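Project outcomes to date are best conveyed with an example. Our students and postdoctoral researchers have been running inverse folding experiments weekly, and each run begins with a structure described purely in tokens. The record below, which covers 498 residues, was selected by the lab manager from last quarter's runs and is presented without edits.
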């Protein structure tokens, strides 16, 4: 708590592979929440969040998206302007990836905001009202990568609309189709090759009555478009009428096909979507028997608990999500680990030369640009130098004490890890949550070639840094310390895979 006292929230098991943590704060200010599993911090912990009182008469913001999220999934939060009077509201989200922001005015003094981060890392969310940051802004949200492996498939169900004329596969890719329901709701629908060889349209009927299907090529209707489709009562999908049977939804084994079957014959039309998440990305096979029944199998490679979500017409079928215990041998993944002691970097003084280094092979330095924002919110350009092939350093001379923000952009996009925190004077806070890593080698690589990435430990203070690489083959790890709180790491593997 802001006062330094420690408080315990309540933990509830939701029995579906998720746990809810509930907490009633009693103090205003910055709180830090540590979440540990078996004594180890979970990804992103400790989380920091700002608590405000509801009746402060100020604009306030609250919600999970200001604290944490998962890359590739929307992060949501709410801004409350109740009792705050008139003033312009402005929003910005900065971080390792561009995040698309959408918002909706709820007309009750609150605004719902959603943004979509596409890379893990720390995102800075600024909410300003009448040109001033609101209390707690900027907020820093930790976006983690996908820790659990997830696989999903969708099987559309065709309402029998056949397009006249012959359409080649190349043609099929150039067409776009949408369907408009009687209520006026329009959504995209999918074109697919039917067993008869004709082209059919797959969509999920959500209401009865006459629907209009438009099929366009380069924005122009094709011959006979728009088509009319009539949907009757028994065609509207009902997840409760789907029958699911098979052992594969209660227990499973690694490295074999675990089966179950799904019968949608009495459930109307609807797309079936299946996702399986757990310790490994389980390969899913789906055999659609074209009579409304499907045989589905999945093949996990690691033992543990898997969550199977089975939805029909966008609703969970009875019993979903299923929790499946998978037993058996794991895959023979090789793990290589190195540990290096990192000393705290000497304190930086005002007026001294500050530097931050990073490695980005295969680019031209002309496309790199850097700026530094001081604690007083003054932004200036910083100089970038190429130290050796692919190794760059950012130089600046600070004029005040405190936390500076260093942004490094390549072709106007933040490089992985940017924006960086850089403290001038003694560190106010230290620890693992201030260490950053970024670079192409954390996302992809090639067999036999070094995959490279950077780790910045300067803001985290001293401590032991451990790096492990695990996968189908052993990794040769190389570690270079740049002596300024940054280091670059490269690893070479001999087998493709994850």
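After processing, the design step wrote out the following sequence:
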């Amino acid at each position: 708590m802001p006062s330094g006292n420690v408080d315990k929230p309540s933990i509830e098991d939701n029995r579906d592979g998720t746990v809810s943590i509930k907490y009633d704060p009693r103090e205003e200010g910055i709180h830090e929440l540590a979440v540990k599993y078996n004594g180890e911090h979970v990804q992103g912990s400790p989380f920091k969040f700002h608590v405000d009182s509801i009746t402060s008469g100020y604009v306030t913001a609250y919600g999970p998206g200001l604290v944490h999220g998962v890359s590739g999934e929307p992060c949501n939060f709410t801004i409350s302007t109740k009792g705050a009077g008139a003033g312009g509201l402005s929003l910005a989200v900065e971080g390792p990836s561009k995040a698309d922001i959408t918002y909706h005015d709820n007309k009750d003094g609150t605004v719902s905001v959603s943004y979509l981060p596409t890379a893990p890392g720390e995102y800075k969310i600024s909410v300003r009202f009448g040109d001033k940051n609101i209390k707690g802004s900027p907020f820093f949200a930790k976006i983690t990568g996908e820790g659990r492996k997830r696989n999903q498939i969708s099987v559309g169900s065709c309402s029998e609309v056949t397009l006249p004329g012959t359409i080649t596969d190349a043609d099929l890719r150039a067409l776009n189709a949408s369907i408009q329901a009687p209520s006026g709701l329009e959504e995209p629908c999918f074109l697919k090759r039917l067993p008869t060889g004709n082209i059919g349209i797959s969509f999920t009927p959500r209401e009865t009555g006459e629907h209009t299907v438009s099929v366009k090529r380069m924005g122009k209707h094709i011959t006979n478009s728009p088509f009319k489709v009539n949907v009757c009562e028994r065609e509207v999908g009902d997840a409760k009428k789907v029958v699911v049977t098979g052992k594969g939804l209660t227990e499973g084994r690694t490295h074999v096909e675990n089966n179950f079957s799904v019968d949608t014959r009495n459930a109307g039309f609807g797309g079936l979507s299946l996702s399986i998440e757990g310790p490994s990305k389980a390969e899913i096979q789906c055999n659609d028997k074209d009579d409304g029944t499907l045989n589905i199998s999945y093949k996990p490679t690691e033992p543990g608990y898997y969550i199977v979500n089975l939805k029909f017409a966008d609703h969970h079928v009875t019993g979903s999500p299923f929790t499946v215990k998978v037993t058996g041998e794991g895959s023979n993944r090789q793990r290589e680990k190195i540990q290096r002691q990192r000393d705290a970097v000497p304190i930086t003084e005002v007026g001294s030369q500050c530097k931050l280094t990073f490695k980005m092979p295969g680019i031209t330095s002309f496309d790199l640009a850097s700026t530094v924002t001081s604690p007083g919110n003054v932004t200036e350009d910083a100089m970038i130098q190429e130290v050796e092939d692919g190794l760059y350093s950012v130089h600046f001379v600070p004029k005040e004490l405190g936390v500076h923000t260093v942004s490094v952009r390549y072709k106007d996009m933040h490089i992985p890890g940017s924006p960086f925190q850089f403290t001038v004077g003694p560190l106010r806070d230290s620890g693992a949550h201030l260490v950053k890593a970024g670079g192409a080698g954390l996302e992809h690589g090639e067999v036999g070639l070094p995959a490279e990435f950077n780790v910045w430990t300067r803001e985290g203070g001293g401590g032991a840094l451990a790096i492990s690489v695990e996968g189908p083959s052993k990794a040769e790890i190389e570690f270079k310390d740049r002596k300024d709180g940054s280091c670059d790491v490269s690893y070479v593997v001999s087998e493709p895979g994850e």
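DSSP finds one helix and 45 strands in the chain. The chain has a mean pLDDT of 84. The training component of this project remains on track.
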